[in-house]
């Protein structure tokens, strides 16, 4: 087993460190700058859909939520995102111009499989965004976009998440190009940025000592709040999910702009608040959210882009990440949050790879 962990103390840490090459695999051969497009080999006419339903569970659901922002932005298609256990029973409005995108690492999650069947019964075309080759879901979708993350053993998903995000970026580009909503210049720029991701994630992994310091400082907290906006809202939710899954610390996430409608009441000097404050169109608004937390005595841990020295005035701790196109920020930003969950769980003596009550894939309802 020690050999399988490749010298790392846990599968989860090994898988976190595999993320640069996982991204190489996911993107490999699929980016075509000359045509300003991606080549996904999908047997689907992407121009014919007028709405998208994204369906998934757990971490895959958060990848789907990022996908909603991307597809709406680049392909101007209305996108709904549901957790599969809700979708199956909510009487969704579907027709033959609906594309159902089901996202699953294992390809075996029963709720996701049943939600896929429900969408198909109602006439949707279907696309799986899947890791495990030949898994149940891939046998029932019209097309599959494999994420090529390799086997994921740690129960808490890490490398499959970044691979799913990269796949959703490519899908949004493909839809945008097929529909004529994404011009060649913008597409080329995004492709160039996607190519940089493996290197940027590699660089982000080097920030582990700062994350370890933050974990050391806050691991006795009983609650954490994670805030983000736009594409970084799902990142906040994924950060909170990772922390609760493996450290058992209660963690909640909110879109930062919604904080004033409830969670602001929780803020006090014992509450660490992780704020995704990377560069992007909503940066200034996020900064005001940080000031609101700080003014109420909350302990702000900001995740900021390299070079943002000003943020130090408002945040007690800052974890810097390399700057990247705002639509790709979730891929880089989730890495320190995975490490924060990992380091915290280790400090608390938790069973990182086999957290209590959780299963790697849930095949019963
Ligand atoms: C379980 C796992 C999660 C995973 C979810 C969905 O709850 O513990 O890590 O995100 O299932 O799994 P899937 O294989 O469908 O992506």
Automatic annotation (TrEMBL):
Record keywords: Aminotransferase, Cytoplasm, Glutamine amidotransferase, Repeat, Transferase
Catalytic reaction annotation: D-fructose 6-phosphate + L-glutamine = D-glucosamine 6-phosphate + L-glutamate
SIS domain residues: 42-181, 214-355
Any one of the GO CC terms: cytosol
One GO BP annotation of this record: UDP-N-acetylglucosamine metabolic process
Active site per database record: 360 (for fru-6p isomerization activity)
Keyword Transferase in annotation: yes
GO terms, molecular function: carbohydrate derivative binding; glutamine-fructose-6-phosphate transaminase (isomerizing) activity
Highest taxon of the lineage: Bacteria
Location of this chain's protein in the cell: Cytoplasm
EC number, UniProt record: 2.6.1.16
Job of this protein: Catalyzes the first step in hexosamine metabolism, converting fructose-6P into glucosamine-6P using glutamine as a nitrogen source.
Subunit and interaction comment: Homodimer.
Protein's name according to its UniProt entry: Glutamine--fructose-6-phosphate aminotransferase [isomerizing]
Protein source organism: Oceanithermus profundus (strain DSM 14977 / NBRC 100410 / VKM B-2274 / 506)
């Amino acid at each position: 087993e020690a050999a399988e962990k490749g010298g790392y103390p846990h599968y989860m840490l090994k898988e976190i460190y595999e993320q640069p090459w996982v991204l190489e695999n996911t993107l490999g051969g699929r980016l075509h700058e000359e045509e300003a497009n991606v080549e996904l080999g999908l047997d689907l006419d992407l121009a014919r859909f007028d709405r998208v339903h994204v369906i998934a569970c757990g971490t895959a659901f958060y990848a789907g939520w990022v996908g909603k922002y991307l597809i709406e932005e680049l392909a101007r298609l209305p996108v709904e995102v549901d957790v599969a256990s809700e979708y199956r029973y909510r009487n969704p409005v579907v027709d033959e111009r609906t594309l159902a995108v089901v996202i699953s690492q294992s390809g075996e999650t029963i709720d996701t499989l049943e939600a896929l069947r429900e969408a198909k019964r109602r006439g949707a075309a279907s696309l799986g965004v899947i890791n495990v080759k030949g898994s149940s879901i891939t046998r029932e979708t019209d097309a599959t976009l494999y994420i090529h993350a390799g086997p994921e053993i740690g129960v808490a998903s890490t490398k499959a998440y970044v691979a799913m995000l990269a796949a959703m970026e490519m899908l949004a580009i493909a839809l945008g190009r097929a529909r004529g909503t994404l011009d060649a210049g913008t597409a080329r720029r995004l492709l160039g940025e996607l190519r940089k991701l493996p290197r940027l994630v590699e660089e982000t992994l080097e920030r582990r000592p700062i994350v370890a310091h933050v974990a050391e400082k806050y691991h006795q907290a009983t609650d954490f709040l994670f805030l983000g906006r736009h594409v970084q809202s799902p990142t906040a939710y994924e950060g909170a999910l990772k922390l609760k899954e493996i450290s058992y610390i209660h963690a909640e996430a909110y879109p930062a702009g919604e904080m004033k409608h409830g969670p602001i009441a929780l803020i006090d000097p014992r509450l660490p608040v992780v704020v995704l404050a990377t560069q992007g169109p909503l940066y200034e608004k996020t900064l005001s959210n940080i000031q609101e937390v700080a003014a109420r005595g909350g302990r702000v841990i900001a995740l900021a882009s390299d070079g943002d020295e000003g943020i130090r005035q408002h945040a007690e701790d800052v974890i810097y990440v390399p700057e990247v196109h705002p639509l790709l920020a979730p891929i880089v930003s989730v890495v320190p949050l995975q490490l924060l969950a990992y380091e915290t769980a280790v400090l608390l003596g938790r069973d990182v790879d086999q957290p209590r009550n959780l299963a790697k894939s849930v095949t019963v309802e």
